[in-house]
Design goal:
Porin; 4% helix; mainly beta; 18-stranded antiparallel β-barrel; single chain; 435 residues; 1 helix; 50% strand; three-stranded mixed β-sheet
Length: 435
């Protein structure tokens, strides 16, 4: 459940999308190097420079430069389960996007960067190139080379088929934020549909909160020593493809992926500082299906996958549900959407936290001048009653400012899947200035 990148309206399923390595040419094996872990002190000068550049950009560049500058505050009402974490957390972020069209707009260079400086958690202080892409568009299709963002999926509660980009988990626990993925993407436009082919030459490891961060497992994740099933490690060559087409009221997508799993296993190990969790990335084969039917005020949605590998038994998972929007609800200007979805995983709770769960939510668009919106929802485990509750709201302040509020709560017992997060519920307020 997330908000569009540069707007105040909530993203529906059709609008959603939510340590870089470079191969050396002088014989240096970069896969043996530890990932760069920038600290707040190191990144603060860069953050200040980017903020000043965003605020004082000449008007002659307005057609080519856009983005946002944000200040975020999180309050955690409950005491943490581990030492070193605080009740309050503050951070600043900047997300500029620059593009240049040429060759009669048939080609584009796109640069989309992200930087956050966090006051408490050094692991959340990080820089990423979300996109660094050359694109060429012709009648027959498109070619994209570089770092890119790709989104697949239609459901609200989770995105099972979205497998190309790695999750930037330190940004938000909802998994909507993604790291830029090195890729070669060929898109073909045909009468029978659109075919996307992907070659993915380098793997991005998932980010995790550090020792002083909230919203982390009881043990710290040792991101410096990730393990891989493939001997190629981060340089394993992955492949993906997706066929999509509109058939009457139905939007259909069929996808396939072969390569390194973006969801690591977290294996307990003994590190130099005590017990830790080490990420282990398996090799997988995945087939995915996403369907959405739009008619009247209704949306019918389904995402389903089957996944297997040499060290992973084949399993089936799906998320499906409906959304209905009451336009002009209660005789007002508001549009009120009601959502419900069912989440299933054949592995049970040992393989997924969402093995037999129900999601219920509501999306409200006030349709006012300030583009105020609200998204409320919760995922409930039908067996244990364990609940993940979320509220996201946005309100524009003038034409350039956006005020956002976010509430997360984890209702779980000491032996439940989310037991390690049961004290990490928070209230977040963020003020963004768009440029």
């Amino acid at each position: 459940m997330a908000v569009g990148r540069y707007g105040g309206k909530p993203r529906d399923a059709r609008q959603s999308r939510t340590a870089t390595g470079i191969e050396s040419k002088v014989g240096l094996d970069v896969t043996a190097l530890p990932p760069y872990r920038p600290t707040a002190r190191r990144l603060l000068p860069w953050a200040a420079a980017l903020c000043l550049a965003a605020l004082f950009t000449p008007t002659t560049l307005e057609a080519q430069l856009q983005g946002r500058l944000g200040i975020e505050a999180r309050a955690f009402p409950m005491n943490p389960l581990h030492e070193g974490a605080d009740h309050m957390n503050g951070s600043v972020s900047i997300e500029p996007e620059w593009y240049k069209d040429f060759d009669r707009r048939r080609q584009r260079i796109l640069v989309h960067a992200f930087l956050r400086v966090d006051g408490n958690d050094d692991a959340r202080t990080h820089f990423d190139l979300r996109e660094l892409m050359w694109e060429r568009v012709d009648r027959w299709g498109e070619v994209r080379i570089g770092l890119g963002l790709v989104f697949w999926g239609v459901t609200e509660s989770q995105h099972l088929v979205d497998v190309v980009n790695q999750t930037d988990l330190v940004e938000n626990p909802d998994g909507e934020d993604k790291l830029g993925q090195p890729m070669l993407n060929l898109r073909l436009f045909q009468r029978w549909g659109t075919l996307d082919l992907f070659v993915l030459p380098f793997f991005r490891e998932r980010t995790f909160p550090g020792a002083n961060g909230r919203l982390r497992p009881p043990l710290v994740v040792d991101t410096d020593n990730a393990q891989y099933e493939s001997s190629a490690g981060r340089t394993h060559l992955d492949f993906a493809l997706r066929w999509s087409h509109m058939l009457g009221e139905w939007d259909v997508g069929v996808s396939a992926f072969r390569g390194t799993n973006r969801d690591p296993l977290l294996i307990p190990t003994q590190g130099s500082d005590g017990p830790m969790l080490t990420p282990f990335y398996q090799q997988i084969n995945q087939i995915g299906l996403d369907l959405q039917r739009t008619f009247g005020g209704w949306l019918w949605k389904l995402e389903a996958i089957t996944r297997s590998g040499e060290t992973l038994d084949r399993f089936l998972a799906f998320t499906g549900g409906i959304e209905y929007t009451f336009v002009g609800a209660f005789g007002s200007n508001m549009d009120v959407g009601v959502l419900t979805e069912y989440l299933y995983d054949s592995r049970g709770r040992t393989g997924s936290p969402f093995a037999n769960d129900i999601f219920v939510g509501s999306r409200i668009a006030f349709n006012d001048v300030q583009s105020t919106d609200l998204l409320v929802g919760g995922i409930v485990d039908q067996r244990t009653g364990e609940t993940l509750f979320s509220v996201e709201g946005n309100h524009r302040l003038g034409s350039d400012w956006l005020l956002s509020i976010e509430v997360r709560a984890f209702i779980a017992g000491s032996s439940d899947t989310f037991a390690g997060f049961r004290r990490d519920g928070y209230v977040q307020v963020e003020l963004n200035r768009f440029f």
